[in-house]
Amino acid sequence: MCRMSEEPKNSRGRPARERRVSSQIQREVMQLILDQGLRPGTPLPTEADLMDSLGVSRNSVREALKALQALDIVEIRHGYGTYVGEVSLTPLVDGLTFRALSQQADDTRALLEILQVREVLEEGLIRRVAATVTDAELDELEGIVVRMEEAGRAGDPFPELDRAFHELLYQSLGNVLVPQLLGAFWNVFRRVAGVRGWTDDPSPALTVRRHRDILTALRARDVQQAQRAMADHFRGIESRAGQATRGVG
Asked: Could you tell me the pTM of the whole model?
């Protein structure tokens, strides 16, 4: 006989009410961090203090803290306590990597979707960079491109130089989230490429030229040309991704 009084359960057999309570506790811990102005690395109140202030059981507190640890909002140091986490984009990277790899029949499409998001971000930001980048930063970018050229002539891959170029490119904006987001997309691409065993960039000379085109447009403070150069750059990345290569430029 069906018992209507029983609460619906999730796949782990927990009542729906308990799931809501766990989610609510997570929000309350986050609010506590905000209200107290706790910075990354600062210790949180003890489990006993959290139990008292939130009015919940030890198990509920521990479950909430474990969930927040997965989001890098808190860091549990066994034997020492719980601290405010770095709140990095690592969970985003892990999630996007799993999403791409789980689409085994079409992981290239998943990577192209990530590239499209990065492309929109970078093409939009390059307009601002053209107006804010300093001569000193342009000289630093020049140094990176020269090192790319040297590596290409020697037949050496230069993914880290490529990454350094893009990280420096937006430095003048003073937006700390930009390099974090770009780094997240980069890490996803590299992780998936590594798992799939894709080859390195088959055309380093072309990759170098596209970076130099971006730099040339920025030196001329030509916003439209800088956007076109960035668009061409991404056309090349997407083409390589479609061919299951690992040039992430």
From this structure: 0.72
